[in-house]
Amino acid sequence: MTRTLRLFIGADADGTEAALLDGRGLLEYRVERRAAPSGAGNIHCGRVSRVEKGLGAAFVDIGEERAGFLPLADLAAIPAEGETLLVQVVREAFGGKGARLTARPTLAGILLVLTPATPGISLSARIDDIRERERLVMLVEGLVREGEGVVARTAAAGASLDSLKAEMARLRAAWVDVQARAETAEPPALLYRGEDAALRLVAENAGRLAEVTVNSRREAERLQALCDGVLPGMAERILHRPEREWSPSREEILEQAEAALEPRVGLPSGGSLLFEPGQTLTAVDVNSGRAVGDPYGRADAEPTLLKTNLEAAAEIARQLRLRNIGGIVVIDFIDMREPRSRERVVSALRNALAADPAPTRVEPMSRLGLVEMTRRRRGPSLRAMLA
Fold it and tell me: What is the value of pTM for the model shown?
C-alpha cells in the first residue's frame, strides 16, 4: 500500500487539533477541547433520571446538560429511577438532544475493539481478502475469553499474533481499570476516555501514513508507545517537530479548514457544488456552470453532463469527509437522459465513498437526478468544531 498521507497533530493545554492531508491538501480535520462535553467512546458511571417505557428508553444523567438516551433493549431488566449504570456514549449530544448511550461498552485499540460483555468475533468489512480474513479469525479465536468479543479493525490486516496479543492485553487492562473505578465512583462520573482523534486517525490510516508530525514531545511519545509492538514501523514515523518547522504551517492548515466552510466548491470542468446544511438533512446541488452552458434540450450534451456529474461525485465524497457531514444527504445531480449514465454516477459516488472511514449508504438515482444517501455522524461537523 502506497503511503501518501501525512498527519499533523497540534496539542496544547486547551486540547488537540489533528489534520490529515493527502496530495490535494486537507482531507480530514478534528478539534478536541479538554473542556468540551463528553465524546463518543467515553464510559461513564451514570444515574437513571427517569424511565420512559413507551419510548423503550431510560434517560441517564452522565453529567451533561441533557440526560443521555439509553435503549431499554440494552438492559437485562428495566432499571429503577436513581439506579447507577455503567454506560458508554455512542453518539454525542446533537441538535438539542442528549447523547445516545449503550450499556454494552467497547474499548477501541489500534488493531482490535474489545467488547467485554458482547461475545463474538467480527472483522472490518474493509478487510476484503478472504485468506486474510480466515487468518485473522483463527488468530483472534485463540485470544478471546469466554463471554467477551472482539472486532478486528482495518489496521489488523497483516498483523502478527504478537501484535494482536499485545493489543488484547492493553485493552483488557483498561477494562479492569474501568471496573475498578466504577466500584468507588459517585455518579455522574467519567471512568474512561474513548479513542481520541489523534489515535483514531493513526489507526484508520496506518497503512497509508507516510509521517505523523506532532508539536508536543509528550504527545509524540504517547502515540509512539501505543503503536510500539502493535504497528511495526509506525512508531518510527511519528516525529516530534516544533510548529516553526511544519510544512504546511499550522496557520496554513487552519486556513484550509476555514476555506472548507464555504458553501460553493468548484469542479475541474467549470461546474460547481453548492452545500446547503439544514436541521434535518444536507442538500448538495450540482451546477454545470460554464462546463455545459445551457444543456437542456441538447442531445449532444450527455457526455459533458456525465463528466461534470462524475467530477461532482468524487468531490462530494471528499467534502463530506472534510466537512464531517453526517445524517441524511440529498444530492441534486445534473439531469441526464441515459439510465446507464445515471448508474455510472451512482457507482462513482459509492466508489469514492469507499475510502471514507464513516459508514455510508447510497440509494439509486431518481428520475429527477436526486440521490439520497446517509453518512454516519462521527462527532461534531467541521463548522461546529471551528465555531
Answer: 0.87
